[in-house]
Amino acid sequence: ERAGRVEEACRLYGLAVEAAPGHAPARMNYGAALEALGRTEDAVGAYEAVLAADPSNAYASFNLGRLCFLRGDMQRAADLLTKALTHKPDFPDAYVVLSSVQEQAGDLEAALGSLQAALRLRPAYAGALRNLGLLLGRMGRWTESEGALRRATMAAADDADAQYWRGNALVHLGRPQEAAACYRDALHARP
């Protein structure tokens, strides 16, 4: 049923784009609907068309950058996410995805800075806290990792990944009983 609604929304947004090709919101929604249907290449085209008409559209830069990251085009993703942040510096989601690009490139300090920027904008951002915990763990900073992951689980108690990774951080800190409780919470959140 839901897939049928997305298909219908995609059809209607497609008609709206045909009727008003320069209407950025219709094109953005069309891109999102195409993404939801798994038509990534078509979604890329929709976001590129928005940027062709309005190069300062931070949301189109973000969406296209996110898709480039998912496709493995790290340089283009970094460029687009940086562009999004140039036009909208208070965009925590862009900082989080940029941090993933930076981490993939091996620039852990830059990734850390991007996550910290996201958290300055939205302190209880569970996804950013989870990613921060994972990154700090990768850097061997287990106490800080556990703290970030604890905050992530407080922000989103049903985040099984944060619970699981917090358990791993606790194991590294020599706290196996607390780790076991986190693993149980993770299994409860995602049986």
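the 2nd protein, sequnce then structure:
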Amino acid sequence: YRSCLMNPQCVTVVIATLGRPSLKHTLKSLVGQDFWPGDSIFVLNDGCSRTTHAMVDDVRGLLPIETLDVFGPNNDWGHTPRNLFLRYSLSGYPSPGYVIHIDDDDTYVPGAIARIRQHICSNLGKIVVWRQKDPKGNLVWHTADVLSFANISTATFAHPTISSYPEWTPKIGGDFEFISSLTNQNEIPVVWV
């Protein structure tokens, strides 16, 4: 990961999982994305599921990926594993890398990482928020520039690596509270793309 700290356009993708079968589709959606040297993917294995390791092993040669086992299961939508990762793996390091979070039941369309990186490069030092469609094709947020409960999802933003992170609270709406606290406590502007 540390090689990423020298490149402001570098991305770290963080996936918290309980080892659900949908993780296979999440990982498959990352294969073929435009990952650069120094980019990394961390699968946070909440509860040390063996099925998680098997799914990661299936794509290991195709992605810059590692599995980190987290004691659990915590059953809190991945919030505890994300907090531990941010606190112990990223805290204390200054920018310039970016972190992208994705749940184990989300997928990215082809070219998504390249588009996200393009927005990051155009907005270095800012939190970048984009739209996401649910399985029925509905957009997650409707109005840009409104940081609200229904406008944020785990897989809809990238944030710069900073030295200290707020807690991701273990409840529905934790994604919104995390990004809101990240913005307010660190005075990081949000850009809606």
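The mean pLDDT is 83. The radius of gyration is 15 Å.
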